[in-house]
């Protein structure tokens, strides 16, 4: 059997790397195996090996997706993943995400205030998280806030009116053309 493409989940201790991996596997359904994520869309099915790395570890050759994990509660974890990203060639990865865990710990914007939009949960970000957003934009990473421990909070997360949460991470992974994907027959895709 061919080796699965690799998705690395990189971050400092306490950032929520393993919790994120578990949340991704849980969302994939009861057939999920810890360490392997099966991605099923109406067009294809594919699997990826999930590999949790510390901020000082190198990624395997040919990594298809990189998830840099920071905690909204730990300012220092941002510098660690930024350093990791500059030390390793991630330009060939088809998916590049900065996933901010513990979004439930951010102060919530009061409804009706000048900055609140939509019906989702809008949070107030400290200056270092705003800097993380800017860094992501400048270096071609997508920034996503998640709450791995509370599905209700996670499902309501928004940033600038755009949905965030584990479902957005999964959506980004689904949008990639994975090596070894198996196309779903057109008749099944239409049902």
Could you explain the architecture of this structure?
Helices cover 29% and strands 24% of the residues. It has helices at residues 17-28, 76-87, 127-138, 151-156, 166-174, 186-190; strands at 6-11, 36-40, 44-54, 65-71, 95-101, 142-145, 158-159, 162-163, 182-183. The radius of gyration is 17 Å and the shape is globular. The longest helix has 12 residues, at 17-28. Strand 7 and strand 8 form a beta hairpin. It has 191 residues and is α/β, with parallel strands linked by helices. It is built from 6 helices and 9 strands; from the N terminus they run βαβββαβαβαββαβα.
Give the gist of this structure.
The chain is an alpha/beta fold and 191 residues long. The chain has helices spanning 17-28, 76-87, 127-138, 151-156, 166-174, 186-190, and strands at residues 6-11, 36-40, 44-54, 65-71, 95-101, 142-145, 158-159, 162-163, 182-183.
Element layout with pairings:
Layout: E1 6-11, H1 17-28, E2 36-40, E3 44-54, E4 65-71, H2 76-87, E5 95-101, H3 127-138, E6 142-145, H4 151-156, E7 158-159, E8 162-163, H5 166-174, E9 182-183, H6 186-190
Parallel strand pairs: 1-3, 1-4, 4-5, 5-6
Antiparallel strand pairs: 2-3, 3-9, 7-8
């Amino acid at each position: 059997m061919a080796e699965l493409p690799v998705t690395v989940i990189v971050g400092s201790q306490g950032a929520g790397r393993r919790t994120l991996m578990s949340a991704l596997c849980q969302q994939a359904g009861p057939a999920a195996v810890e360490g392997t994520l099966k991605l099923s869309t109406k067009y294809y099915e594919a699997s990826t090996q999930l590999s949790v790395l510390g901020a000082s570890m190198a990624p395997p050759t040919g990594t298809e997706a990189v998830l840099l994990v920071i905690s909204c509660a730990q300012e220092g974890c941002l510098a660690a993943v930024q350093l990791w990203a500059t030390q390793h060639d991630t330009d060939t990865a088809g998916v590049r995400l900065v996933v901010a865990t513990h979004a439930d710990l951010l102060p919530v914007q009061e409804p009706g205030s000048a900055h609140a939009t939509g019906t989702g949960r809008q949070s107030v970000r400290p200056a270092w998280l705003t800097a993380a957003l800017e860094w992501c934009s400048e270096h071609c990473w997508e920034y996503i806030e998640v709450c791995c421990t509370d599905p209700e909070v996670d499902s309501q997360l928004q940033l600038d009116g755009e949905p965030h949460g584990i479902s957005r991470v999964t959506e980004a992974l689904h949008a990639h053309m994975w090596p070894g994907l198996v196309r779903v027959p057109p008749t099944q895709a239409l049902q």
